[in-house]
Amino acid sequence: MPIPTRVSSDKPKTAKERIFLEVRDWIITGTLQPGEKISDQEISKYFSVSRTPVREAIQMLADHRLVDIHPGRETRVSLVNFDESAPNYRIMAELHALILEFAYPHISTDVINELRDIDQAFTVAVKRRNVQDAAAFDRKFHDVLAKLAGNHFLTEFTSVLGSHIQRIENMFYQKNNFVAFNAHGDIIDALVQHDLTKAKEAMRQNWLRASENLKKVR
Q: How far apart are CA 119 and CA 106, in angstroms?
């Protein structure tokens, strides 16, 4: 089972959480490919923990539909269901429009400037066809709004669904050496105009256009 050579330094409080986040990242980025067999023994050795937190983390990954557990036999990375991608983008469009609505009362000029800086860095990454950096800045942009929204459940829902979307995007863009992420200028412009309705629609279109971009790659 191919795994990285070191553990990231930013560790959550518990071993279970640390393992879950790290292995989830391996699946999203393609370090662990669809259908790859998961060895709890190897993961246990890698993180220097007992197999109990590893099994708990794997169960969490199964709950998120990122791995398939076959009791008494094996655990493998889930296959990618491309038929679910378009509906998932539609759901994300509405969830992020709601995040924007919750965040809106807390969006100051400083926040808008922060969003603009992130979007500029995002645009540079896209022009350089750097998939990982573009994806990172895209997440950072939306994370700013999610933190301002301050709703745990809304953040959790988008995180779970976002894992599957990131996985598909990484797979296709890296395979085809193609980057077609959408800039966030329309969202920022609407916020500058203090037009929440327009900003929410721009947010929806940001996600829906991303879904259309994937069809071009497929």
A: 19
